[in-house]
Amino acid sequence: MMGAGFSNTCHKKEQTISITYFNTPQGIDYSGLATMYGLDYVKVTTNAELEQAMQQYIGTEGVHIIEVPTSKEISRELHKVYRVQ
Fold first, then answer.
1. Distance CA 64, CA 52 (A)
2. Which neighbouring-strand residues pair with 67?
3. N or C end of the chain: which has fewer CB within 10 A?
């Protein structure tokens, strides 16, 4: 998950001390990098697109980039739901 990599790593105790969440915005054009290095690239925004990309690339040779943009806020909420207490 690019962009919110460290947001969910703070412990509850640390959060009460007002630890600032770290964001890791990349500002990278992955399609441009893929073109520069001759790699396969696809950007997906839905589960169906992700499934299709995975089916396309699984079992094939080479390097394939599947970009999955994420939302920091949604990721944080999902982390709250699925983390082990």
1. 13
2. 43
3. C
Listed residue (53, 25, 51) closest to 40, CA to CA: 53
d(Cα 12, Cα 9) in Å, to the nearest integer?
A: 10
Q: Which residues contact 4 (CB under 8 A, 6 or more apart)?
A: 23, 24, 70, 71, 72, 75, 76
Identity of the amino acid at 38 = G
Amino acid at 10: C
- Separation CA 14–CA 20 (nearest Å): 9
Full-model pTM: 0.61
Q: Are 69 and 45 in contact (CB under 8 A)?
A: yes
pLDDT digits (tens, 9 = 90+) for 37-60: 999 999 999 999 999 999 999 999
Q: How confident is the model at residue 18 (pLDDT cuts 50, 70, 90)?
A: very low
CB–CB of 4/23 below 8 Å? yes
